[in-house]
Here is the input.
Amino acid sequence: MVCPSSIGEEVTGVLSLENLLIVCQHFGAFSKDVTIVEIEPQNEEYGMEFSPVVAAKVGEAIELVIEVTQLNAETRT
Here is the structure.
């Protein structure tokens, strides 16, 4: 669902990946077969390693990507 405040924030300079994705979806920048899987970060600090919260969810995210990919492949055949 498009949140009008996200579009306003993006236009006025509040930049975030989440807002960018919402705006792109709103304006039809993605094809219908694009699915984005997000893991909410524990914090937004930069570093070379995942936070423990993100590291614990990577396997689940990979399984979800595989599942969605297989479903998309099945619907195309």
Remarks:
- The first helix runs from residue 4 to 11.
- The chain has a mean pLDDT of 82.
- The two ends are 29 Å apart (CA to CA).
